[in-house]
Amino acid sequence: MLSGENVYEKAKREMRLSEKILAEIPGFRGYKEKELRRESDKLVRDAIFQRLREARNDLREVFQMFSDQKFHEVMVRMDRLIMRFDRVTQKVNHAAYGYSGFFNIVKIDEAKLDRMLAFDSGLVNYASVLVDKSKALKKDVVDNKFEAVAEKIKDIEETLSSLESTFDARKEVILEG
């Protein structure tokens, strides 16, 4: 499992010698640690982004199979689900991670950056669950098992909705305290 703390600690261990020397300069250490936290958070969000894209791609394949088999009754719902995946995926990909928007107004400290990293790491589980559910739906369609398709689509929609709601609360969670 991908963990924000693991990513940050790994990045810290893998600093080049020149970066380690500069990190000993007063004032630079705090800057470099903030930079590592921001970069670690970006890596975690990139992992979420990749998982969401994987799930979306599976759903696109399912949509194509429905189209090929002329299952029009679920195609509209699948199309909406795929569009929502696109929107949520881009929201995650383009989220602020310490430089823009709300961070310009409020001085961000290490504790807030750590909360941001932990929060985003928690979202990795949602993305992994969506990948699993999308693959299960795809497998059922490939195996011509259509009896539970509507329930599986609804389950994916609800999980994606939970991920999006949680992600939308990100700003408040990070800035609290």
Entry keywords:
mainly alpha; 81% helix
Summarize the structure in words.
- With 177 residues, the protein is an all-alpha fold.
- The protein has one domain (4-175).
- The protein has helices at residues 4-13, 17-23, 28-68, 72-93, 102-105, 110-142, 149-168, 170-175.
- Helix 1 (4-13) packs across helix 3 (28-68).
- The longest helix is centred in the first third of the chain and has 41 residues, at 28-68.
- Residues 98-106 have low confidence and may be disordered.
Uncertain residue ranges: 98-106
- Characterize the biggest β-sheet: none
Radius of gyration: 20 Å
The total strand number stands at 0
Spatial separation of the terminal alpha carbons: 27 Å
The level of helicity is over 70%
Number of domains: 1
Estimated share of beta-strand residues: under 5%
Structural class: mainly alpha
Mean pLDDT: 78
How many H/I helical runs? 8
Shape: elongated
Helices and strands, in order, run as HHHHHHHH
Reconstruct the topology from this structure.
Blueprint: H1 4-13, H2 17-23, H3 28-68, H4 72-93, H5 102-105, H6 110-142, H7 149-168, H8 170-175
What is the compact description of this entry?
With 177 residues, the chain is mainly α.
